[in-house]
Design goal:
Blueprint: H1 2-20, H2 24-29, E1 39-43, H3 47-55, E2 63-70, E3 73-78, E4 94-96, H4 98-101, E5 109-115, H5 118-133, H6 152-162, E6 173-177, E7 180-185, H7 188-192, E8 197-202
Antiparallel strand pairs: 1-2, 1-5, 2-3, 3-4, 5-8, 6-7
Length: 203
C-alpha cells in the first residue's frame, strides 16, 4: 500500500513539474516572460548561420540579440545583414518582435538567458535600444574596435559593457576559415558562456 501511494505521489509530482515547464509559447505569448536586457539566442539554417557555426566551434546558436521594452511591449534588438534571417531588410541594427526573431523560417531553436543583476540588464537594454534609434549599420568587417557599426555579439557585449559590466570571460578570438580572417572577434558562444548570464529557457 505504501508503494502504491508513493507511486501516485511520484506521478502527481511529475505532472506538476511538466505543467510548470516553460515552452517557446511562453516566450512568444506571455508579455511578462521576457525581461529588459534578457539575451536571446537562435540557431538558423541559412548559409550565414552555417558559416557562423563553422567559425565558432563551441557554438550552439548562430545569432544573438537583446530584449528591450518599447511602449510596454517586449522587442528584440539585434544586428544582422539585410535579408538574412529577418523580415527587415535595412542595413542597420534592427528591432523585431519575439515572434519574428524566433520565427521558424529563421530559427531552428532558441534560448533565453538572464543577467544576474536586473539593474545592469535594464541599463544594457537602454543602450541597445539607443543603437537601434541611431540606425547603427551592420559591421561587415567584424571590427570590435570600431563601434560605429555592429555585428550581433558585438552589439550585446557593447550594450552590457556600457552598462558597467562585460559579459566576456575571454576576448580576442581569431577566426580563420577559407575566405574569412577576423581578429579580436566576439563569438556568439562567448556571450552564451558568460558567467553573468543564467539560462531561463531553451527550446
Amino acid at each position: 500500500m505504501k508503494f502504491y501511494y508513493l507511486l501516485l505521489f511520484s506521478i502527481f509530482t511529475l505532472f506538476i513539474f511538466q505543467s510548470c515547464e516553460k515552452t517557446k509559447e511562453d516566450v512568444l505569448n506571455d508579455p511578462d516572460f521576457l525581461n529588459n536586457g534578457d539575451v536571446v539566442f537562435r540557431l538558423g539554417d541559412s548559409s550565414v548561420s552555417n558559416a557562423v557555426m563553422v567559425a565558432d566551434e563551441d557554438a550552439e546558436y548562430s545569432h544573438v540579440g537583446i530584449v528591450v521594452s518599447v511602449d510596454d511591449k517586449k522587442m528584440i534588438v539585434h544586428a544582422c545583414p539585410p535579408d538574412i534571417e529577418s523580415v527587415d531588410t535595412a542595413n542597420q541594427v534592427r528591432i523585431d518582435t519575439p515572434k519574428a526573431f524566433f520565427d521558424s523560417k529563421c530559427a531552428v531553436n532558441g534560448a533565453v538567458y538572464r543577467h544576474e543583476n536586473l539593474d545592469i540588464a535594464d541599463a544594457a537594454a537602454n543602450y541597445a535600444y539607443d543603437l537601434y534609434l541611431r540606425h547603427v549599420p551592420f559591421d561587415y568587417n567584424f571590427d570590435t574596435n570600431d563601434t560605429t557599426s555592429m555585428y550581433c555579439s558585438e552589439l550585446v557585449e557593447f550594450a552590457y559593457l556600457k552598462s558597467g559590466e562585460s559579459l566576456l570571460k575571454e576576448k580576442g578570438h581569431v577566426v580563420d576559415i577559407p575566405g574569412v580572417y577576423i581578429e579580436n572577434c566576439i563569438l556568439v558562444s562567448d556571450i552564451q558562456k558568460s558567467e553573468k548570464l543564467n539560462k531561463v529557457i531553451a527550446f
